[in-house]
Amino acid sequence: MSTETMTKPAKATTLQAINAAIADAMEEDENVVVLGEDVADPEEGGVCGVTKGLSSRFGDQRVRSTPISEQAIIGAAIGASMIGFKPVAEIMLMNFTTVAMDMIVNHAAKLRFMSGGQTHVPIVIRTMTGTGFSSGGQHSDYLEAWFAHTAGIKVLAPSSPQDAYGLMRSAIDDPDPVLFIENGPTYWTPAAAPEKGQRVPIGKANVLAEGTDLTIIAYSRMIHEATPAVAKLAEAGISAELIDLRTVAPWDREAVLASVAKTGRAMIVHEAVTPFGVGAEIAAVLNEELFGKLKAPVRRLGGAFCPVPFSKPLETAFAPQTAEIVEVAKGMVG
Amino acid sequence: MSNRAVPDAATQVEIYRRMALIKANDERSRKVVMSGRLVMPYYSPRGQEVIPSAMSVNLNDDDYLCTIYRGTHDMLAKGFPLKDLWAEIAGRVDGTCKGKGGPMHLTYPEKGVMVTTGIVGSSMPIANGLAWGSQMRGDGRVTVATFGDGASNIGAFHESLNLAAVWKLPVIFLCQNNEWGEHTAYHKTSNVRVADRAAAYGMAGERVDGNDPFAMYAAANEAVARARAGGGPTLIEAMTYRFHGHVFGDQDAYMDKARKAEAMENDPVSRFRARLIADGISTEEQLAAMEAATEKEIDEAIECALASAFPGVEELKRDVFAEELA
Predict the structure, then answer these.
(1) Burial track A247-282 (b if 16+ CB lie within 10 A, e otherwise)
(2) Domains in chain A, please, with CATH?
(3) CB A79 to CB B99 under 8 A?
(4) Is B245 an interface residue toward A (CB < 8 Å)?
(5) Candidate from A231-235, A253-257, A294-298, B36-40 with smallest mean pLDDT
(6) Which CATH superfamily is domain B9-304 in?
(7) Model-level pTM greater than 0.80?
């Protein structure tokens, strides 16, 4: 699907938006290249088809399917990026970043600093994850906190087609490594379509709903759990503000602090396990900056502290859900 | 083997100049660390001088190099300037990385020194990327990844060799087999020669005497020609011997004394020096003058480094990202 036809109808899916963002970037800049397992068209443009059509359009030198070799994929992206290319590397699933951690953490994130700015690594690492596919313990994890804990890499986690498009364009423009987290189960959810060329700035949150009693901070698929929660809370007479972080690192402190200064209450919701997570970092900053203004302890809702389970009821119970968000919010306000 | 490339007289002298520079620089480095004038982790390349010297005379400044923590010999052979190097290993602001990288992360893109890694095996995946870039551009450049024998048993080696072979990348995997992976002998960790593994990936590979400048030159020359001509990667296993322990301060009790003494007696630097004189390529006076000039250059680099300022703490916020941290 081309961007031209996509901008006409009001709707697009996140999968289409990411495809369009990469295609538009490749069209504008011949240094944008794509690599990863199955990414070219003979291999169907990836397991979910996110990069479908790109190799047919831009050639198999610029869109290369690779062996199943995550270190080699990220290494190749790093090397090419150091001499002027803008590689978009796919690591099929976020759990597979674990076998490329040396390349991502010790090299991509650190080479600019360790070389005193002589080299830099403008790569985008696309990776998909999330509960909902009954994929069990090694195909579903949200590991964003590991990367957010590493100096030198940015971490994005869009929740909508427009943000996915705009953040992907910004990620490809960015002179430093960017980890781009895609949620698998919401790939095919249609929503407002992006505009060609539109950028969403890295590090800027989006206030999806304004409120006065409580701030809910979430990102990625948790926005789809929090949005109905805000409506349910409104029915109960509670005015919740919903902030879509969009960028996990560097997160938008200004927007979050302004909101919580206003509401006095904050809840952070993510699918990653709660201990030592992104919620802990945000809660710590809220305590440091707004200690006297908080009307209730900052709450964190995250995944259960166990590997993602297979059995459907367990998998569903693993991640925060709308009802839980509503219940905790009521407890904080009431 | 008789029709292999032979370095001409001038190239032989140039190979020796680089070897003598590496040797002298190593001796000064150990002295400076021993005396406490500098504190740094130091991985001596002494004994391995021939390999990068005979390789680099086949390369241009704009060919790329990815090397490792035991890599000052690779860097100096590639033309890394002494002053930038010494100021960096002294942690000073005039260092090539502003003192933020140190001896294990020396970088100098002007001479193609793109990455120095402290992680065993990690020079190879990145070298592939540089070579892939050259392949896409058709710029004819060659990338060399150097590493030790120990790195041939880490996953990155296998992933990298396979990808390079499948993509026919203009890259050379230069294994410097110094018989030791940290404290463990190579034969205790592998059943095969490193070079034999080339066949498993369908790429050219050979084991060569890495202490013989002629054999090393010929192997490097062929690998570089193959890469430039689009013939794909080569794995070279250059046999050598590490004169010192893994890291400075390591007492190397695990190394067989007789084997080590034998290797040091056959010091490739003094051997090649004697040969150049015996073959009438150079004279004692010429080589002595060259060595004296090198010594002087090293002395100046060290003094310059120690006179340079330390970086300010504001550097903690710089170069993490393009934009300075708040």
Answers:
(1) bbbebbeebbbebbeebbbbbbbbbbbbeebbbbbb
(2) 8-192 (3.40.50.970), 206-333 (3.40.50.920)
(3) no
(4) no
(5) B36-40
(6) Thiamin diphosphate (ThDP)-binding fold, Pyr/PP domains (3.40.50.970)
(7) yes
